[in-house]
Amino acid sequence: MSNTNNLDDLKNKAAELGEDVKLKAKEVQLEGEKLVDDAKHSAKEAKFEGEKALNDLKNNANEHQGDLKDKLDHLKTEASQKLDEAKLKAQELKQDASEKFDDLKVQATEKLDELQKKASDILNKFKG
Predict the structure, then answer these.
(1) 27 Cβ partners below 8 Å, 6+ apart?
(2) CA 7 vs CA 20, 98, 113, 127: distances in Å
(3) Among 28, 38, 109, 128, which residue has the least CB neighbours within 10 Å?
(4) Average model confidence (pLDDT) across the chain
(5) Among candidates 116, 122, 94, which has minimal Cα distance to 34?
């Protein structure tokens, strides 16, 4: 009877550990998705800043007809630079998110393997 209770306890512990690992994997997935969402948000902000710079350019052009060409060229260059910077930042954030997500997946897999091995060892100890 004691072995049965111990085996049942071990099964319950293994099931709890499996649930913990599943929850950790879900947490890791959510963190990865958040990082990707942050990268998307940064890209949208960059697009908005570019559109805003272009709109500012148009307003300035109407107000100052005399030096319109110079200001237009300058603002286009500035908007292009900001957009390029934002794209680069968004790419970096996406890469960071991907790397962190991959790291978290590896950690979750390692933890799951470790827990499965412990549970198996314990079960084998009681069987053998």
Answers:
(1) none
(2) 20, 41, 20, 9
(3) 128
(4) 83
(5) 94
Q: Is 71 exposed, middle or buried (0-12, 13-18, 19+ CB in 10 A)?
A: middle
Spatial contact of 57 and 75, defined as CB atoms under 8 Å apart: yes
pLDDT in tens, 100-113: 988 989 998 999 89
52-79 average pLDDT score: 79
Residue 1 has pLDDT above 70, yes or no: no
Q: What is the pLDDT of residue 65?
A: 67
Question: d(Cα 20, Cα 26) in Å, to the nearest integer?
Answer: 10
How many CB atoms neighbour CB 106 within 10 A? 11
CA–CA separation, 38 and 98 (whole Å): 12
Tell the residue number behind the tokens 């940064």, with chain if given: 42
- Mean pLDDT for 84-97 is 90
Token readout for 52 is 């805003």
DSSP 44-59: HHHHHHHHHHHHHHHH
d(CA 118, CA 120) in angstroms, rounded, equals 5
